[in-house]
Amino acid sequence: MLEPQDSEYLWIVIVGFILAFVLAFGIGANDVANSFGTSVGSKVLTLKQACFIASIFEVAGAVLIGARVSDTVRKGIIDINSFNGTEEYAMVGSLSALTGTSVWLLVATFFNLPVSGTHSVVGATMGFALVAQSLHGVQWKTFGKIAGSWVVSPLLSGLISSLLFMLVRRIILRKPEPFEAGLKFLPLFYAFTITVNFFSVFYKGSHTRCLITDEPKTGRLFAFLQILTASFGAFAHGGNDVSNCIGPLISLWTIYWTGEIAQKVAIPVWILLYGGVGISIGLWVWGRRVIKTVGEDLTPITPSR
């Protein structure tokens, strides 16, 4: 057990806060494109408008619901009890995880690659646990669930997206009067979008075939719906991915402040806010690079798509 607030380890905390900000910056520059890339690509929002809206919802998500996932990153991936008596190893390990993840995210963003901050921090956290405590330092059951989601998530996302677009094309875009059909079904899409996003937040194309209606006013019916779901996505992202930079930082802070490893800690709101602000700054400074990749370079985007 360390002495609480031992000045010998203060440098680790200071460097940890700096690296956590760098990591939050990288997450904002890279991952926020997942929510608002298509809104910018379809010209529903300008880049400045997207950054402004995303900043509000990212910070709100980080502060309001970020503590839950941050605690999972802190103690769910590794067996923190295995570091009892060697708390300094846990501090240095958390610092190493922050370093590796932030460097990788910045490199990926420089090359316009949309990568996952969650994958990165999970791998980095596992890496230092394996070095320090061998195989018994990792919570393999929790890791199995996380790794399973990496496979299931893109498959389900692709399937649901395909089915939804086929439905929209059938009941709206290919009708003789698509604008009137869109007005008729739009309330159902609003209700569905709000329901799905509230549940997810608060519960724990081809160039050779024309699939778009060139009647632009029908496509614009989906514009506000797209902004709405992107805003919910940013809120959920802030609540989820702030943990990537704040989880290891909380370990550093609590060990330094109390001198011991605790299963349950009260996560300070100001640390969550610190991560949310870092994400927003990264989005404003460098996020346009990946937003362009997601919203413009992959496939032509319209509001209905």
UniProtKB/TrEMBL annotation:
Under the heading InterPro entries, the entry gives: Phos_transporter
Cell membrane in keyword set = no
Record field: transmembrane: 9-27, 47-69, 89-111, 147-168, 188-206, 265-286
Lineage: superkingdom: Eukaryota
Q: Which GO terms describe its molecular function?
A: phosphate transmembrane transporter activity
A Gene Ontology term for the protein's cellular component: membrane
Q: Where in the cell is it found?
A: Membrane
Q: Does the keyword Flavoprotein feature in the UniProt annotation?
A: no
Q: What is its main location?
A: membrane
Q: How does it sit in the membrane?
A: Multi-pass membrane protein
Q: Which UniProt keywords apply?
A: Membrane, Phosphate transport, Transmembrane, Transmembrane helix, Transport
Question: Which Pfam family, an example, fits this chain?
Answer: PHO4
Q: Which GO terms describe its biological process?
A: phosphate ion transmembrane transport
Please give the family membership noted in the entry.
Belongs to the inorganic phosphate transporter (PiT) (TC 2.A.20) family.
Protein known as: Phosphate transporter
Species this protein is from = Nematostella vectensis (Starlet sea anemone)
Lineage, broadest ranks: Eukaryota, Metazoa, Cnidaria, Anthozoa, Hexacorallia
